[in-house]
Every structure is written in C-alpha cells, then in structure tokens.
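Annotated sample (chain length 233).
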Amino acid sequence: MRKLISSGLLLACTGCVTVPTPDTATFCVANVQSFANPEAGARGDFHPNVLFSDVRIAPSAVGYGATGSRGDEITISDGALHLARPDTAGSYRHRVGAAEGEGAYMLQLINVEAWRTPSALSAIASLDALGVAISNQIGAAGCSGAAKLAYRIEGRVRRAEWSLDTLPQRGDFVTEGHDVVVVGLFANVEQAKHFVPEGRNIHAHAVFPALGVAGHLKSLELEPGARLQIQAR
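Output written by the structure step:
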C-alpha cells in the first residue's frame, strides 16, 4: 500500500514572479511537497506515490526525485520537468514532460513564487562549499533558525560529477567547462524526509542546457561569478 510521507495540495500560484524581486519580509520555511515510500522502496517496491497529473508544477518550480520503478531521474528547474535515464551506449536519454498516467516514486517539489535578488559567488570548490555559501546567504537574509528554501544558480562548471540513479541501470557522468543551472533544496531540518544527503544541508541537481540533460550532482566545481538566488516566497 502506498504511503504519502507529506501531503497537501500544491498552493495556487497567483502572479508568479520569475525575475529577481526586492527582498521584503523574511521567509524561511517553504512548503515542500514531499511524496515517497521508503518502507516500500526497501522491499524493492518503487511504484508511483503520486501522478504528475495530480500535482501542479508552477513556472518557477524546483524539484527532484525518481519516476515510478525508478526508471528516470527527475529534475525540475524553472518549472520544466526533466526526465533522464542512461542508455546502453554509455550516454543518456532525456525528455521534458511526462507521459499520460506517469508518476513519481519519490518527488520533492517547491513551487517558488519569487526569488531574492541574486548574489555573485566566488569560485566554488565542492558541494560542501556550496552548502556553506547558501547557508551564509540564508542566514544573511534573516533565517537564523529552521530553514527550508529552494535555490537556483546560473554559472559555469569547471568540473561536475553527476548521476542518473535509475533502475535497472545507473549512469555516472563527468562534465567540464559547460554552462549550468544548479537547483535544489536547502534544509537544516527534516533532512531525511526531503532526501538531503547525510552530512550536508543541500540536495543539488544540475541542468546542462547545451547538453540537453539534467541529473543529480555528486560533486561540483564552479567558476567564479555564478549567480545564486534564494527563494523569497
């Protein structure tokens, strides 16, 4: 039997803002739509826990997860649903949008309504360093306690290791010297619920526009000057 870890209808997005806006009231804990069934997954049961047709993906939404049967890696960036899986030739297959009746075994979805004013990052040497930079920005925004917020970064990678954690085959890839959009969730509370890797405060995915693919980040080096945006509401 499927189990919904965290339910609740997606909030209607009235007048979604997709460009940087002046920071106003402090907003620290976003509504993260969380669907999964770890107990079933431990038994090898990866049936969908939510259909894509039953959730609303807003124009600035961020998210990540895995489709039913873990057939595709899910990355949601700027409201686009990226689905990717490895192929037998050591490459990948990528599509945008889901088929009718398709769903997610695991989905973490944040319907961002507005972003804070972007800030420039110095060179980033690792995902841990990125987590520190995001944490510092969130603290500077006034969130000194519990925080769960989406983030978005536009920049260029020196090197990125990323994966498609799919079944029956997993794909591991390395990309160097490409433009990238990094999206994900910062969470210093309920990390296990939102599949934030142990010992970190971010779950990070990457979209490589020139390559036409998106996946889960395992390591990251960013050139200086990347632009970081934190969810404003």
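Annotation: The CA atoms of residues 131 and 196 lie 11 Å apart.
Annotation: The chain has two domains: 32-110, 119-230.
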